[in-house]
Amino acid sequence: MDPMDIDSDSLSSLASSDDNGSDNGFDQTMIDSNGDVQPRGYSTLYPPALPSYANWSQHSWAFTARRDAGNGFEVRQMNIQNVGETEDDTLGQWPARYMMGPPSMAPDWHPLLEKWGLQVLKKAGFINYVSKDPDDYARPKGQAAADRNPGDIESLRIHPVFRKAMWKDLEDEDYKVIEPALLIASAYLDDEITLNYFHAMAAGPEEMGTFTDDVLGECNIATIPETLSREKQIEAYAKIRKMCDFTTWKFESVHRMSKSHCTGMMKPRYVKKDVDKKGKGKVEKEKGKKGKSKKKSDKFLVQAGKEFTYQTDIVVSEGFLEILQQFDMDVSNGTELHLKDLKLPLRTGFVPKSHQIKIDIASAVERTRYLLAETLLHEFAHAFIAAWHVPTGEPGEPWINGNRSNEAGFAFTHFIMGGCPEGLSQYLPPMDRDEDHRQRLCAPFGMYFAKKWDQWEVGSLPGGKGPTRVMTAGKDQAFNTPHTLYPVLQRFVHDLSTKVTWEQQVPRYGLRTLQLPRFDDWAVHRLNDLRRKGIWSTGQNRWGDFDNGPQAPTWM
């Protein structure tokens, strides 16, 4: 066997070998000669490259890769005719190792999976990471947490807006299950940069900038200050803390959330009042109607922090809770039921054994916790703006400099996380939509995020549903520019629970060290194809639709 090709996937070997593919020596926190902590950087392997005669979207499936003698991959063409086939004759070359291209003949794989394949992404550390230090765990703690919890009292580590009293119908044991995600979300809130953000969101109309859109008219736009005075920081925190009176949390069924195509949802809080047909509260009995009064039941928004603001209730997909409960039960009982759920997309996607991977359960659960934290922060941003931003008209939510869309949840998570991460999944009809929803939460194949989260956003213009709006200016340029997607390095997700992160990096650099790392060499660039099919419009030669002639590539 070639010594460069040794790479066991067994769990026992994972604990003793660097199966994530990254060079840990470059990933560690560096300390300079003065003893000062330097910002941590992340690295991984160089991606495989195809020969000049091959086209990625048409030919990547015909190639296999293995580790080279350096920090990358060696690639060769295989003696096969279709995706998923095994090679009967290697023609005297090294054995196939990491299969590239789409995991199966099924169309519409995510572009990152379509390009690199599951096995290459896994080897590069984008799916699994197994720590070599079992004693490295640390509970998340934001840079400014000491201002809120100066005594570092354990029971106060979770931010007040996420504590048990804020959750409806949640048992103590279930609250304990989601605690790691609540701590991550709390750490993102406990930062001066976050205070700057919410200060800008609660600013009055006189402090907001404006721009004029050809369709939307005059719109508010907020600028996030780089620094705030101590007085304004305290004021911003007080508004965040007051949200304990203005919103609640509750888990909602997977089916209802999948129908709404979201993992979380903010709902305005209404109070019912009986009014007469003229809208007045006093109701007179009308003769000839057997003493019954003419009235109707109407709903009114419950005011929040200011006039023309309102209180909210937030629902979050129960799928998060179910996944974390299952993992907790597996750990307690020595079972692997969650692992079966993680393997399900391999079956529903018809992935042959030659292209499958072993998924590390702990890595997948770390992703679920991170995605839950992201959902909480996303919805909290909506609720905060509803409670403190006084709209001057429609659109109600303000824009942030640099964004095309005013979708406040995505704008906030992009600002503090460096992107809007989502789980990689595979939807193949007639798969149940609820199962697709669960896949996105358990993220068996890793996660991804876009360089510009709103680049191809359409939004709902006046007359449509929902509060989201998109600038008219720059639309053609945005849609004619490739949409760049990055895979998320699993080492980064794992580090959200390590001592180096919370005891060295965050105290020194705050949110800067919690931003998603970008690997340009591993990015995939989607092309805006008006003939798009499915969700991702990939696998243009595998849809079985040859009557229309060759299909143009949808990514590069």
Automatic annotation (TrEMBL):
Residue ranges, compositional bias (Basic and acidic residues): 276-287
Region annotated Disordered, chain positions: 1-38, 276-296
Compositionally biased spans, kind Low complexity: 9-27
Domain of life: Eukaryota
Descriptive protein name: Uncharacterized protein
Provenance organism: Aureobasidium pullulans (Black yeast)
Lineage: Eukaryota, Fungi, Dikarya, Ascomycota, Pezizomycotina
